[in-house]
Amino acid sequence: MNKFWSDNLDTLTPYEAGEQPQDKSYIKLNTNENPYPPSDAVLNAIKLTTSDQLRLYPDPNAIKLKQAIAKFYSINTDNVFVGNGSDEVLGFTFRALFKKTGAIQFPDITYSFYPTYCRLYDINFKTFPLTDKFEINIDLIPEDNSGIIIANPNASTGICLAVDKIEEILRKNSNNVVMIDEAYIDFSGNTCIPLIKKYPNLVVVQTISKSRSLAGLRVGLAIADAGLIDGIQRVKNSFNAYPLDSLAIAGATAAFEDKEGYINNKAKIIDTREWTIMALEKLSFYVVPSSTNFIMAQHKEMSAKSIYLKLRDEGILIRHFDLPRIENFIRVSIGTMEDMKIFIQKLGRILA
What we know:
By secondary structure, the protein is α/β, with parallel strands linked by helices.
């Protein structure tokens, strides 16, 4: 511990992102990035914004982007908050809406940034267990909570909870905030955004990093009742009045306006995901049902860590979490069809 650190700094366990090695060229299937480029409409919007106007501050409210998001989801602009990636949006939401009394609840296997934010903001938390099939049993969510967070589809596992189940959670917990992290929802089914009109305790967080191929722009959003959005906005304006730069606002706005590019992009990934699942099952893997742009799988004989290390030597990066219950699973992001065929080919040689 450094003597100049604040009191609780040595207690923090920072989030660990997927490795980004620079020693050679890899096929990157470890960070759930979109393998396809942004659409021409998005790139053109960014290029048009690259001018002498960059000397000026961006719109602190990113109103054009909020209007595009509101139109896309048929909601009002005062239901929309935008920030520098969904991680920042999550951070602002934790600070604004989760109280220090009681404990918030989230699954024991989920996005590892949640406990990180709890420790950073001194928020008590507890976890409830997923089933043996890594599903959420809503009856296992304790009623004595001060808030609930669910990644849907779930990070790491890829399983999606039906909207009617989320609505049941909202009904049972009407006095506390329920946050649904929909980072991967575009690869699955229905968003629960329409429920914000019925439940003022619901916050939905999304990102443009995955389905819209813009991880490099760092744009995330929260959608909720206007009263909750106002609370998140207060934290943002107390921290950074200009979280989104002009290029990010322009690119993200174009991404929400370009529905055709968005639909085509995610369709290719879903098709490749289903092909990869069948190929892994032929190689004696148990594959957890996925509604995302990644797959979690376990081989019947070879350990996940061994597979991870051998693939790395072959120039393919995947993810291995050395954590209870999932230590023998690999997580594989969906790349292009060419990427996945190379992955399956090399994986087959390793297993043989």
